[in-house]
């Protein structure tokens, strides 16, 4: 996995969670997070949380499933539907 592969995947999808990216590339979430940090520093990717509290207050959700990464060159950032995963019952 290299930076350009992450770029292409995220550009194609517009937005996705850290766990989605890690699963797609069959890589550890921390390794993916480090590569995404490079794109964040370049201003190409934005990191958001699925919700303000999920993953931080109850600690029941996997943090990788609540970290949402958005490719900033796409027009989807204005109309995002960032919500907690469907399997999370800690709303």
Overall description:
The structure is a single chain. The protein is built from four helices and three strands, in the order αβααβαβ. Helix 2 (18-24) crosses helix 3 (29-41). The protein has 91 residues and is an alpha+beta fold. The chain has a single domain (3-79), classed as Winged helix-like DNA-binding domain superfamily/Winged helix DNA-binding domain (Arc Repressor Mutant, subunit A). The N and C termini lie far apart (34 Å). Helices cover 38% and strands 14% of the residues. The longest helix has 13 residues, at 29-41. It has a three-stranded antiparallel sheet. The protein has helices spanning 3-13, 18-24, 29-41, 63-66, and strands at residues 15-17, 45-49, 67-71.
What descriptive keywords fit this protein?
4 helices; Arc Repressor Mutant, subunit A; globular; alpha+beta; 91 residues
- Largest sheet: spatial strand order: 1-3-2
Average pLDDT score: 78
Task: For the record, give the distance between the C-alpha atoms at the N and C termini, rounded to a whole number.
Answer: 34 Å
Per DSSP E runs of 2 or more residues, the count of β-strands stands at 3
Annotated CATH architecture: Orthogonal Bundle
Structural class: alpha+beta
The first-level CATH class is given as: Mainly Alpha
The oligomerization state is single chain
Using the coordinates shown, work out and report the CATH topology. Arc Repressor Mutant, subunit A
Helix and strand element order: HEHHEHE
Characterize the biggest β-sheet.
Answer: 3 strands, antiparallel
User: What fraction of residues sit in β-strands?
Assistant: 5-15%
Provide the domain count: 1
């Amino acid at each position: 996995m290299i930076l350009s592969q992450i770029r292409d995947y995220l550009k194609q999808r517009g937005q996705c969670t850290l766990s989605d990216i890690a699963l797609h590339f069959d890589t550890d979430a921390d390794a993916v997070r480090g590569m995404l940090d490079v794109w964040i520093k370049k201003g190409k990717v934005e990191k958001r949380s699925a919700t303000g509290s999920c993953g931080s207050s109850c600690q029941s959700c996997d943090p990788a499933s609540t970290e949402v990464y958005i490719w900033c060159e796409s027009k989807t950032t204005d109309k995002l539907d960032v919500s907690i995963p469907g399997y999370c019952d800690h709303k």
